[in-house]
Amino acid sequence: MKFTFIVFTLLLSGCQLEPWVKPYERDNLADPIMAFSRDAASSTYMHHVYQAREGARGAEGGGGGGCGCN
Amino acid sequence: MVQKAAAAVVAVVIKKMKISKMLRPSNPVTAVLFLLMVTSVQSAVLPEDRTEALYHRYEGGGMVIDGPSVLVRKAVAEKFSVSANYYIDNVSAASIDVLANASPYIEKRNEYTLGLDYLTQKTTVSTSFTNSTENDYEANTAYLGVSQDFFGDLSSLNIGYAKGWDTVGKRGDLNFEEHINRHNFKVDWTQVLTKNWIASIGVNTVTDEGYLNNPYRVVRILDPSTGLGFRYQTEVYPETRTTTAVAIRTMYYLPYRASIKFEARKFGGTWGIESSNYELAYIHPYGDHWIFEGKFRSYSQTEADFYRDLIDPTDPSQNTQFVARDKEMSAFSNISYGFGVSYEKEFNSPGIFKKFGVTLNMDFFSFEFDNFRNVLVHDTNPGEYAVGQEPLYAFDATVTRLFFSIWY
């Protein structure tokens, strides 16, 4: 328990104090071309296409709980 | 300035909470929760105020499904963001499943979603409700999710739960009414790895309970006494299903202004279907206003334990309690490639609207089935193929998305 606590504390406090990517280094990450999903309505629609045609479902990324429609 | 103010707030919180006492190993959970709370220097942000108007079209395998989708999102009182989505599917169905034992049909599906996001420091609480109606099906989904940024905003944890309750009907049978309950749990972790690299892992488990059949789908049973040599019988699905999917996604910003995206997903469940899919995309801006995108995706799955293309009634191993012949339950694979082009431009004059964008995406799919045979050849080429020796089914499909966005 103590070990877990120490690991968590070091991890959290350490990362808090020294994030390895500084805020001023995040220009590239903030570029719209680095978004996993740039357009919500369009991405949701593609998930629906996949779910309707394929046996798999879930872990598509993005928010929401999907729709149970067939 | 903001960081100084945040540091001052943290100092006050530490003082008020007597942190030296809280951080004793005897109370580690509280300490960890506290650290999670005070690691905030920058706050999370709400989604952008934006309206998207999408026209979507799926065409392939005898199906044409198209319609609009309009998504409106607006921040309220700085901490809230409300969203509304109206989506329509106009379905013209003449797929192989329909043609084999029924008549082509036309139907419409309406879907409404209302959502609310609440932002406090670096925690975002999201909730939404979705209602979908067809003439023979109604689906409701309520969602609650919490997203938390920490580690100096390099990490984001998103936990969500959705409950769904559906009512299943059947055309031509007013007395037919069945129900489905769904529970959907998901956890996503997104991590900034370097100033050019971001990755995400997500786990999603879904359970269903109730009438999971498609009431129109049938299985094929060998029967030499009939003209075709086989007859059809209603499918029988299990009344429960639990599935789990795990996905990783990663994006990398290239040395010049462009990015690549890779995604992999593994899926499994109690019905025996196991699948994997992989996607690779390249996004390349041109000038200040254009963004081009190309992608390739592959998908493959094994069949459900109770999938049968043709049941031999004399074979006990094929006459199981549950039987299905949905092609989505069979073993198959598909590949697709797609491209997209976007044009975005900011408005020169100050006003309500900040920017607009137009995007066209097209995706081309090829499906190949490993054990779902094309029974329509008995109509198109009578007598040419023996029962159970028909060619395997395959089809191509095209998906088009054209949408207009405006930011305000």
Please tag this protein with its features.
heterodimer; A: 70 residues; mainly alpha; 0% strand; B: 408 residues; mainly beta; Porin; 2 domains; 16-stranded antiparallel β-barrel; two-stranded antiparallel sheet; 18 strands; 10% helix; globular
Topology:
The complex is a heterodimer of chains A (70) and B (408).
Chain A lengths: L1 H16 L9 H4 L9 H14 L17
Chain B lengths: L1 H15 L2 H4 L5 H11 L11 E11 L2 E14 L3 E14 L2 H6 L3 E16 L2 E12 L2 E14 L4 E14 L9 E17 L2 E14 L7 E5 L7 E5 L5 E14 L5 E11 L5 E12 L3 E12 L30 E15 L8 E19 L3 H4 L11 E16 L1
Antiparallel strand pairs in B: 1-2, 1-18, 2-3, 3-4, 4-5, 5-6, 6-7, 7-8, 8-9, 9-12, 10-11, 12-13, 13-14, 14-15, 15-16, 16-17, 17-18
Spans of chain B of at least 5 consecutive residues whose pLDDT stays below 50 are: 1-42
Describe the global form of chain B: globular
What about the largest sheet of chain B? 16 strands, antiparallel, barrel
N- and C-termini, Cα separation of chain A: 47 Å
State the end-to-end CA separation of chain B: 27 Å
What is the tally of helical segments of chain A?
3
Query: Any idea of the CATH class of the largest domain in chain B?
Result: Mainly Beta
Order of helical and strand elements of chain A: HHH
Domain count of chain B: the total is 2
| Rg calc of chain A | 19 Å
Strand order of the largest sheet of chain B: 1-2-3-4-5-6-7-8-9-12-13-14-15-16-17-18
Helix content of chain A: 40-55%
Low-confidence stretches of chain A: none
Q: SS-based structural class of chain A?
A: mainly alpha
Counting H and I runs of at least 4 residues, what is the number of helices of chain B? 5
Order of SSEs of chain B, N→C?
HHHEEEHEEEEEEEEEEEEEEHE
Kindly name the structural category of chain B.
mainly beta
Oligomer: heterodimer
Number of strand segments of chain A: 0
Shape of chain A: flat
